[in-house]
Design brief:
The protein is α+β, with helices and mostly antiparallel strands. It has helices spanning 82-99, 129-133, 141-147, 165-172, 174-181, 183-200, 218-239, 241-255, 262-273, 280-285; strands at residues 11-17, 21-24, 27-34, 37-43, 53-56, 59-65, 68-74, 107-113, 118-121, 124-128, 156-157, 259-260, 293-302, 308-317, 325-333, 336-344, 348-356, 361-364. Strand 3 and strand 4 form a beta hairpin.
Amino acid sequence: PRGDEETFQCRLTVDIPAAWESVSDGNRLSTATGNGRKVQTWENPFVSDGVMLMAAPYVTKSRMTDSIEVACYFFPEDTGLFDSYLDATVGYIEMYSRLIGPYPFRRFTVAENFFPTGYGMPAWTLLGQQVLRLPFIKYTSLGHEVLHNWWGNSVYVDYDRGNWCEAATVYGADYRYKLMRSADDAKAYRKDILKQYVSYVNEQNDFPIRQFHSRTSPNTRTIGYNKAMMVYHMIERIIGTEPFFATWQRIYTEYRGRRISWEEWIKAFEQTSGRDLSYIIPQWIDRAGAPVLGLTVDKVILNADGPTKAVRFTLKETSGQEYRLQVPLRFTGDGTKVDTTVILNSPESSYVIIVPKTVTVLSVDPDYDL
């Protein structure tokens, strides 16, 4: 790099003690040892805006998955964690290669650090020793950092137009692991996100998702990671799971090595699904706040000749902003459960829905999907 370009192609050669190992961005092109020294060359196959390097007297172990080398660079006292980390990392690479597309590098390294870090760089992650030893990290944060090799380290973020990357990674990793475990775990995760929004975001510190660059406080994390993650969740509910992840594949295929933002995502979701999502950016990305819903049951009319009744009710959105919402509803009572959705695109709208006579309760967004 010469200092004034935004991105550059980088090949890095390091000269270190023979007993040490280095790790840097992208692929290791060569390694040679002689006269007590080791010379290694690294290259990122994509242009980038920086390069990271770590070297230490590591003990290493690796294995192959397809043509990808997965390696662990640990301190001697933590080599007992080798196999569990290799198993987990191979699993993540295989899972995301199926879900999104081929892993973009020829290797991935889990490197240990003496500081309590959790960084993700192209083709490697740097985890602090205390972090590495936590038993749940292999099932949470590790997968998050592996997924960053698709989102953020090969498809780049156009920060001038907003950081979508953390939200997509949370949705494909942290949240998806809960969903893979059970629907109830995923529901609890979404509920916790809404609780955090109420707890950490207020009129004084709120801002549009568009303005999120990085996490610096509880409110920035809540908006840039969690609220933005819920945008992906709402889009999946609107267009369906198959076109949703087909769009992930499309984005990865078309934009590797390029910077993108929400416009490219929404355009791709529309092209893949055939749905109009033009309202997503104005109401969710470009302005602060969130909808506030209220419900009034206006009238219930029994069907004297059958097992049903008509429920007339009104939904109100009282935030003072315009929203187009796909609102989930649930009717329950005496063992009966009826799920449906309605579209609310005005501050107030009334609906009539026919339900079984046994229904006694109407719930709005019962599974925390908005």
